[in-house]
Amino acid sequence: MLGIVPLANKDSRRPANGHLLFDTAHPSPVSESFRALRTAILFRFRRVSGCRVLLTTSPNPEEGKTTVSLNLAAAFHQNHLKVLLIDADLRKPKIHKIFDVEDARGLSDVLEGTARPRDVIAENVDGLGFDVLFSGPHSDHPTEILGSKQMSDMLTELKSHYDIIIIDSPPYLAVADVAVLNEYVDGITVVTRYHKTDKRHLKDMKKRLSREAEKILGIVINQVSVKEKDYYYQQYYYYGYGDAKPRKR
Predict the structure, then answer these.
(1) Would you state the pLDDT for residue 52?
(2) Is residue 130 domain-resident?
(3) What CATH number does residue 167 fall under?
(4) How many separate domains does the chain show?
(5) In-domain check, residue 233
């Protein structure tokens, strides 16, 4: 297990239409959970030199992988790393919706050879400090272009510009796209949803990923209710420990 992310309400008044839960200005259990997750990932990447490429996936849809990818991008940026977030879900992309922008140009344009990465990457999106490569227009053959030489060449080029690249992929058990993306990455993070992800699906996923076993960094348990009596979240993260108190005047 890499980490635990507590259940949090999305406030549309916050950045990224409420999907950005990591907040550097106002400490919270959610922010601490993403700091802990960032640290765990970097620890497992300690033998990787240069740019590190992280893929986030989940067994099935609606388990929170895109939200985790977005908040990890913010957490890595807060650690003074140059970060690129790529929406590689060419079938049901979400990141452009989160930022409320038109998905006019993006990854699919680069892979189809109609654009260069620097022409379509959104830099410092919404002033959050990290860059985003949106998915781009719909493709009729997503698996093929994700496994193409253009994808390999693009990542080779981008690695010279970034410290960490986060690839938000489709759900693993839904389509074959993730299998081809695995070839390009240094580590795979599997996002599960508390009380929703079936253990049988995790076992199936682990079996299919047997060739890339050394790349699997671990599992993130997402949307955990901290109110349940049998849950040890408060013991897992000592939120608020060492917080400075204002001096009395």
Answers:
(1) 96
(2) yes
(3) 3.40.50.300
(4) 1
(5) no
What is the mean predicted confidence (pLDDT) over 178-197?
A: 92
Domain span at 214? 3-9+41-228
**Residue 188, token pair as written in the block:** 């795979």
Question: Could you tell me if 172 and 189 are in contact, meaning their C-beta atoms sit under 8 angstroms apart?
Answer: no
In sequence order, the 6+-apart residues with CB closer than 8 A to the CB of 134 are 87, 93, 95, 96, 101, 103, 105, 106, 107, 120, 122
Kindly report, residue by residue over 19-59, the tens digit of the pLDDT: 677 776 677 888 899 999 999 999 999 888 899 999 999 99
* Termini Cα distance of the chain: 45
Strand 187-193's sheet: what is its strand order?
Answer: 3-6, 216-224, 187-193, 52-57, 164-168, 83-87, 131-133
In a domain, 101, yes or no: yes
On whether the CB atoms of residues 237 and 31 are closer than 8 A, the answer is no
Query: Quick check: helix, strand or coil at residue 149?
Result: helix
